[in-house]
């Protein structure tokens, strides 16, 4: 009798759900970004009511993510019950090895059930993100009475394996909670890589237990220039912060749960003033005082230098001669010890080592560096930088890691197993691909989100310069025409960079990345020949409602139909 009662209840609930079976859906119900490979619109809608999620235990992470999403959206508990009894509607999550691509998925919605299948758990997660966009935008933060989902069949997989966003937390520091929010935005856009820029001239942001002064001293500067470089004055305010190793572990796991790999960047051999302030012996000339251009140094730092403390954390932007000494064995010992603590925190196969904007002036006059050049039979300081990078690469390779570097690592000879990030346009990426090295495209003309995004710069918040609109981002093609089909295989994908010299608040970060990140998400997901700006812009207008529901601070220029003008670019990092 009990079994019969359960069956009768289930039949009754199914019958109630059928009132949506003939609902006519419209194209406006399927405004998905990035655009899936195939979308087949169908009649009917799925009612979220007494809904359970079923699937393999291996997909518990994805199921619990979906459970939370739908519970908020419907105002009703949607539980993961892998062995549960069906009393209402059901959502099935599963692995289907026949699906194309490691991150591919299918999503099938009828008035009776939802089936999300992935080649791997990544694909299932991306199917969930697509399902999310079939929900009303206001369901992101509040419940919707009688929540329904339009019937559809979607087949999808990404065009690029690397889909990244970068954030510089060294010029300006952002709390751990915001880093998680940033990761959530990446997840919503089906991005799979977070490049975390942790060290710079202006601040060292990662706890290294063997070297406590890196965060006691290197994480804080005594002031910051005001206005555009070189500044009008110094604000004389102590500024900084850092992430403990426990915080980093938590953030890395948070990202992993959303199928996002976190790649740390530990800058070397340049952009190292903060580390040198903490440990002056890392400099070629420990006795030479740190210089801030145009005498814009803070009063506190001037006082410290008057009392014999020569090295301070840099307070201005730009590029500086005081870099790691390539001639001292102590430098490599220090960096290897640092990396020994970094490696266990980040499961990523990559460690980004910077390698960009390293002036050679100090190396040219440093006896230790000149001795290194002679001893190693190097031609010049460019080859010395290559020696430096290759030595670090060899150490990391022995630890099971590979390096990524900015395109300057090409100078003096490319490290054998290096992946190159091409930022000074596409030339470095093209050259690297021709040398059969993996490449991530991040050219400043299309992928630098610290640039202004509207020609009316007078009415925009202070930015580094340049002009990169949402349309500029959308029109970017990561595959240069100069590459053959074989060489193009080395282009892993693309990434946008958010350098924060002039981005000091979390609201401003949001303003600078949105909606440009939404445009980039489609660039790295779909085939270039399927892109259509007008179609994307229409879908973006619907996606904007999701920004509003989430309370995000986004730029609105693209929604105002204002003309743009020929852009200029900035190469400053």
Structure description:
By secondary structure, the protein is an alpha/beta fold. It is 33% helix and 17% strand. It has 19 helices and 21 strands. The strands form five sheets. Strands 8-9-16-17-18-19-20-21 form an eight-stranded parallel beta barrel, surrounded by four helices. A seven-stranded mixed sheet has the order 1-7-5-6-4-2-3, with helices on one face. Helix 4 (176-188) runs parallel beside helix 6. The protein is elongated, with a radius of gyration of 26 Å. The termini are far apart. The model is unreliable at 1-17 and 564-573 (pLDDT under 50).
Give a short summary of the structure:
This protein is of the alpha/beta class. The protein contains 19 helices and 21 strands.
- Indicate the proportion of strand residues: 15-25%
The dominant shape is elongated
Q: What is the β-strand count?
A: 21
Percent of residues in helices: 25-40%
Distance between the termini: 72 Å
Rg from Cα: 26 Å
Give the neighbour order of strands across the main sheet. 8-9-16-17-18-19-20-21
Summarize the main sheet. Answer: 8 strands, parallel, barrel
* Count of alpha/pi helices: 19
Look at the helices and sheets and give the structural class: alpha/beta
Q: Please tell me the overall pLDDT.
A: 94
Regions with pLDDT < 50 over 5+ consecutive residues? 1-17, 564-573
């Amino acid at each position: 009798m009990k079994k019969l009662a359960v069956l009768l209840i289930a039949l009754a609930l199914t019958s109630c759900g059928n009132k949506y079976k003939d609902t006519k859906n419209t194209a406006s119900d399927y405004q998905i970004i990035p655009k899936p490979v195939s979308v087949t619109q169908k009649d009917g809608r799925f009612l979220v009511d007494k809904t359970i999620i079923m699937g393999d235990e291996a997909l518990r992470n994805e199921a619990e993510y979906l459970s939370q999403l739908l519970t908020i959206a419907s105002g009703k508990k949607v539980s993961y019950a892998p062995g549960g009894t069906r009393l209402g509607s059901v959502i099935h999550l599963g692995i289907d090895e026949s699906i194309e691509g490691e991150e591919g998925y299918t999503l099938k919605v009828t008035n009776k059930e939802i089936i999300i299948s992935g080649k791997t758990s990544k694909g299932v997660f991306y199917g969930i993100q697509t399902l999310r966009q079939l929900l009303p935008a206001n369901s992101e933060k509040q419940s919707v009475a009688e929540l329904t989902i339009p019937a559809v069949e979607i087949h999808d997989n990404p065009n690029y394996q690397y889909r990244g966003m970068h954030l510089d937390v060294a010029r300006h520091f952002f709390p751990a909670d915001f880093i998680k929010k940033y990761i959530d935005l990446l997840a919503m856009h089906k991005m799979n890589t977070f490049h975390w820029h942790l060290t710079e001239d202006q601040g060292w942001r990662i706890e290294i237990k063997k070297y406590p002064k890196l965060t006691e001293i290197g994480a804080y500067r005594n002031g910051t220039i005001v206005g555009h470089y070189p500044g009008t004055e110094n604000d004389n305010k102590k500024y900084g912060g850092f992430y403990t190793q426990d915080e980093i572990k938590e953030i890395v796991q948070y990202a992993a749960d959303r199928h996002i790999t976190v790649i740390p960047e530990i800058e070397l051999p340049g952009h190292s003033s903060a580390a040198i302030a903490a440990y002056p012996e890392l400099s070629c000339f420990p006795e030479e005082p740190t210089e801030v251009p145009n005498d814009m140094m803070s009063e506190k730092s001037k006082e410290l230098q008057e009392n014999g403390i020569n090295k301070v954390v840099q307070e201005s932007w730009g590029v500086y001669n005081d870099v790691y000494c390539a001639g001292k064995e102590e430098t490599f010992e220090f960096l290897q010890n640092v990396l020994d603590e970094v490696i266990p925190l980040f499961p990523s196969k990559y460690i980004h080592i910077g390698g960009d904007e390293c002036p050679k002036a100090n190396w040219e006059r440093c006896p230790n560096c000149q001795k290194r050049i002679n001893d190693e039979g190097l031609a010049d300081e460019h080859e010395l930088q290559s020696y430096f990078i290759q030595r670090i690469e060899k150490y990391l390779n022995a630890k099971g890691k590979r390096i990524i570097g900015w395109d300057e690592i090409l100078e003096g000879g490319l490290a054998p197993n290096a992946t190159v990030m091409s930022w000074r346009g596409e030339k470095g990426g093209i050259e690297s691909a021709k040398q059969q090295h993996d490449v991530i495209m991040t050219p400043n003309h299309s992928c630098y989100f610290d640039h202004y995004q509207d020609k009316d710069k007078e009415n925009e918040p202070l930015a580094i310069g340049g002009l990169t609109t949402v349309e500029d981002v959308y029109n970017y093609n990561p595959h240069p025409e100069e590459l053959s089909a074989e060489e193009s295989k080395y282009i892993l994908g693309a990434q946008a960079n958010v350098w924060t010299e002039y981005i000091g608040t979390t609201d401003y970060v949001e303003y600078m990345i949105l909606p440009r990140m939404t445009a980039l998400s489609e660039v790295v997901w779909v085939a270039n020949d399927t892109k259509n700006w007008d179609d994307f812009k229409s879908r973006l207008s619907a996606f904007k409602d999701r920004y509003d529901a989430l309370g995000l601070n986004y730029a609105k220029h693209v929604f105002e139909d204002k003309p743009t003008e020929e852009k200029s670019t900035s190469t400053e990092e």
